[in-house]
Every structure is written in C-alpha cells, then in structure tokens.
Amino acid sequence: MKSLLFALAFAAPSQAGLRFGCSTLSIQRLDPVVEPGNVPSGHVHQIVGGNAFNATMQGDIAEQATCTTCPFSEDFSNYWTAVMYFKHENGSYHRVPIYPNAQIGDNTAAVQGGMTIYYTQKDFNSNGNEKITAFKPGFRMTVGSPTTSTLDAAKGHHGLRYVCLDNALTRFPELPDFPTKKCPGGIMTVHHFPSCWDGKNLDSPDHQSHMYNTVKEAFTPAGPCPASHPVKMPQLAYETLWNTTMFANMWPKDGSQPFVWSYDDRKGYGTHGDYIFGWKGDSLQKAMDSSCMFQACGNGRPLKSQTAAQQNKCSIKNTVTEETQGWLKELPGQKMSMQ
Ligand SMILES: *[C@@H]1O[C@H](CO)[C@@H](O)[C@H](O)[C@H]1NC(C)=O
Ligand SMILES: *[C@@H]1O[C@H](CO)[C@@H](O)[C@H](O)[C@H]1NC(C)=O
Ligand SMILES: *[C@@H]1O[C@H](CO)[C@@H](O)[C@H](O)[C@H]1NC(C)=O
In the record, which residues are listed under signal peptide (predicted)? Predict the structure, then answer.
C-alpha cells in the first residue's frame, strides 16, 4: 500500500506554468527573424525582452544581453508582434497604446506597456505527464503571417485571436479578426505558438516548418505531437492589451471598424508573432521541470526575479529613427499601399 501511494505521488503531473508581464523594450521597424539585416524592416513592431535585440542578432543571446524588461531576470528572450494603429476618417494614423495585464497584479501593474508571456506545459493545471523540453540557444520561430488574406485562413490559425474587452478581465469570445464594434475595455490580441519541434533545427527557411502546430483555441490543451515533430516544447503564448479609449469618440461616421495593423491589415487576418529564445543556461528547463505556477516561480523558486523598476529601466536605442507615434500621415514603411 505504502509503495503504491509512493508511486502515485511520483506519477502526479507536475504543474509548472509561467505567466509574466514584460514591459516595452522598443517600438521600431526591425525584424531579425524574417528580415535580418534590414534597417528598417517592412513594418513597425512592439518588442519586449532582452537588450541584445538588433537587426542581425544571432547565437546565444542570453550571453550577449545585459538586461531584460521581463520579471525573471534570466530571461533575455525577445518577443514581438506588429503594432496596432487607429485610422482616422481624415486619413491620419495613431498608434494604439498598450496597457499591462491586470490579472497579474504584483509588480506587473507598474510595468510600462508590453505584453503578457506564457510558457505552459499542457494547460494551467498539468503537463499531462509529458516531459517538456526547453528551447535551445539560437532557437527562433514565427506564428501566423502578414500575407494571410482570407477569413477562412484566419480561422484556421486557432492560436491567433482577438477579444473585444468589456473590461480588463474579459477573455471570450475569441475572434479570428478585428472586432467590428467598439470595445469598452479595448482589444486583446493573443498569439499561441506551436509547441512540437522536429528535434533538429533551431530555425527553418519559413521560420515555421521546424515546428508543428497542434494548438486549439483559447488555452485548451494542444493535440499530441506527430512523429515528424516529436519533441514537446513549452506552450508559448503572448497576450497584448490595446487601450482604445482615446479613440472612442473618433469612430468613422459610416461605423466601419477603424483599427489596422502596422503592415496595413484592416481585417486582422494577418496577425502574427515572433520569438527568439534567450533564457540563460538551463533556467527555463528548471522551471519546466518544477511544479511552480506563475509568480510563485520567482524569487529563486526556481527562477531569479527583478523589480518592475529594473524591468522598466532596460531599453535599447532605436536604430530606426522615424516617428511611430503621434498623428502620422501614413503607416511607417507603407507608403506604397493601395488600401
Ligand atoms: C547585433 O548583435 C550581434 C550579435 O548577436 C552583434 O555581432 C552585432 O554587432 C550587433 N549589431 C549591432 C549593430 O549592434
Ligand atoms: C486628423 O484628426 C486628428 C484628431 O483630431 C488630428 O490630430 C489630425 O491632425 C488630423 N489629420 C489631418 C490630416 O487633418
Ligand atoms: C487607457 O487610456 C486612457 C486615456 O485615453 C487612460 O485614461 C486610461 O487610464 C487607460 N487605461 C489603462 C488601463 O491604462
């Protein structure tokens, strides 16, 4: 009896899950994954994470960065998405501000803008008794594509969704495209990445085929990994909360929804995210092997933490010096657009 209980205790799933708010590192036209070396890249991004971020970054960035805008101080990864703009009837554009995730509380309420990052195992409650293998130095990937141009294709990207927020805590329903009505609490965008790895390649020509996507909607558990991509990695996801309040009285008279991505996408079908792994040493693996949840993973149990003030202090100098805020005549880099 005793040995049976012992065995059950060890068979119990571990629960590790990370959820943390990173403040903004930079907002500019750079894209070291899809357009390495292009200064500027095609469209504006909002980037959080370590300060090794640049147009040509390569290798183990945890060894190159000296600070991070994320609360776990060994996480020098970079996380980014496109930027949302408001298009005024008069033809001008204005960047939509980002606000921090109220669910996280603690120091995160004090961070500037940024994103909420998740590394889960299966869902919020278990890893399904599977070994989760952390990403390796040099690993990078993208999810979604700015060239996605149909609603059906957008629906097929189950991990890429929009939520029209009644308040900061609204999470459903999830939509495949921009909400068409005013959202009192703003708009949340969600990017769930694939979690099945081919076990060999740190990247691939399209930045996606070394991974296999079994993600389902919301935070429901992803499907099993196929034989071609057998290695289960952490389920990475981003949430961004866009504060649309300042535009509430400026909606177009014809009632059309006025938000547009920085690559000039008014439907939202092309929503996408980018990731470069940068956790120091085996820190992410240690977290995935433990049973801590969310903030409880910090302060050395097992991850090292830093304060919101330290997060906010980390930044980089923009290499692309152009206006991305205020009222703009056009979206940066989108002059040729016919939309
Ligand atoms: C960008 O980072 C790489 C290392 O990843 C470094 O070799 C290069 O000098 C950096 N470029 C600039 C412009 O700082
Ligand atoms: C459009 O409207 C905004 C908000 O009132 C204003 O600040 C901006 O200058 C206007 N743009 C043009 C081209 O009139
Ligand atoms: C959203 O923006 C408005 C100003 O337009 C500001 O008053 C409000 O505090 C912001 N909300 C959050 C949650 O940051």
Answer: 1-16
Whether 169 is in the pocket of ligand 3, judged by its Cβ within 6 Å, is: no
Element (H, E) at 155: helix 151-156
In the chain, the amino acid numbered 276 is I
Dihedral sign, Cα of residue 132, residue 134, residue 135, residue 141: positive
Nearest-CA residue for ligand 1 atom 2 is 57
Nearest CA to ligand 1 atom 5: 57
248 has pLDDT over 50: yes
> Which amino acid, one-letter code, is at 98?
I
For ligand 1, is residue 59 a contact (CB within 6 Å)? yes
Q: Work out the number of other CB atoms within 10 angstroms of the CB of residue 6.
A: 10
With CA atoms as reference, report the closest residue to 184 among 211, 163, 205, 215: 163
C-alpha distances out from residue 93 to 111, 133, 180, 329, Å: 26, 43, 18, 6
What is the radius of gyration, based on Cα positions, of the chain?
Answer: 20
State whether the Cα torsion 104-237-308-48 is positive or negative. Answer: negative
Residue 96 pLDDT exceeds 60: yes
Residue indicated by tokens 């990445």: 193
- Asked whether 165 lines ligand 1 (CB < 6 A), one says no
- Angle (CA) 251 177 244, round 5°: 35
Of 207, 219, 251, 215, nearest to 232 by C-alpha is 215
Token code pair at residue 311: 């997060």
Per DSSP, helices labelled H in 157-254 are: none
Q: What is the pLDDT of residues 255-268, one digit of tens each?
A: 999 999 999 999 99
- Residue listed under structure tokens 């294709």: 153
Taking the C-alpha atoms of residue 140 and residue 193, their distance in angstroms, rounded to an integer, is 11
